[in-house]
Amino acid sequence: MFHESKGIYAPQAHVAVPEGTYEDEHGRQGFSGRATHLYHKNPPTNWTKIDGPCKPQCFNALKAQTQSDPWQPTFLLENEDVKIGIIQTHKPMPYCFRNGDGDNIYFIHEGTGVLETDFGPLDYITGDYIVVPKGTTIKFSSKGDNKILCVEARGEVNLPEKGLLGRHALFDMAMLKTPEPSPKIEKGRFELKIKRQEELTTVNYDFNPLDVVGWKGDLCVTKINIKDFRPVMSHRYHLAPSVHSTFVGAGFVLCSFVPRPFEQDPQAERVPFFHRNIDSDEVIFYHAGDFFSRKNMGVGMITFHPFGIHHGPHPGARDGAAKKTETNEYAVMVDTFAPLNPTKAARDCEWADYHMSWRQG
Q1: Percent share of the chain, pLDDT over 90
Q2: Distance of alpha carbon 196 from alpha carbon 183, whole angstroms
């Protein structure tokens, strides 16, 4: 609509930020809408106290209470569009499962196994994303301990539009793996559990329901490993997190953070800029590596930054990044456009003082 520049500012966002100021992006629609950059004299996260639901929060997902049925996720954050939780178990799934409430994205944080599906089996390893469409029959045949981040979407999960990047950027469609039919032609006692409106229905068969001998179409289970994600980079400009979009669904986007070279221009910012995400809540699951913009962050932790409150790099992150040539982290981010609500299970594994971890002095 218009563009104005007043006072002290950097003509190019995230480059040559004026000495003694802290850049803050105030923007709409994630990082794709109208925006203004504000230049503060103090870090906007250097608060002395916060009370209320906008407070930045952090949960240790690996300490979350497991359900009586460990293959049903313990959800930590949820809204009407999406639920985010954790599965932790060391035994194979003893039944077949069908989710009638939505698509699932399973991120294998730790473990290996075989996911049996209507379409055939898929081997999985640590770092795999597995997208299971709503209504698909599956069975996890895990091998040893499995720790799985589960994102349940009410709407259909798709790939993001890549626009000017071209269709082969981020990852080529040929990198997506799909199952080959391998029907289970077996007799015996088999159980299928179907979830609908959060309730389970049990169906019993005298044959294995995973007996599909063939399939055709464009709706099926797919898999790709986070290490196969090829991030967009700019050596002269710190790009917004949205360029790392991996999957999209109704009301949310999922992004992958993987190792990449730092920006080489000495005037360019190397760490995430302060922002307040006024149209989306931000959730990050820390999978592996050295999380350069966050201190005291271990694997399996989940940070939750509600929209409206500032967040950005922890004190010292900028100096730390200046001494390195590349990032060394793997993390999964989910941005939602409707407010998320922490569950009781989240409160039971919360790092209560996380919101004070930005405090300087």
Answers
A1: 69
A2: 26
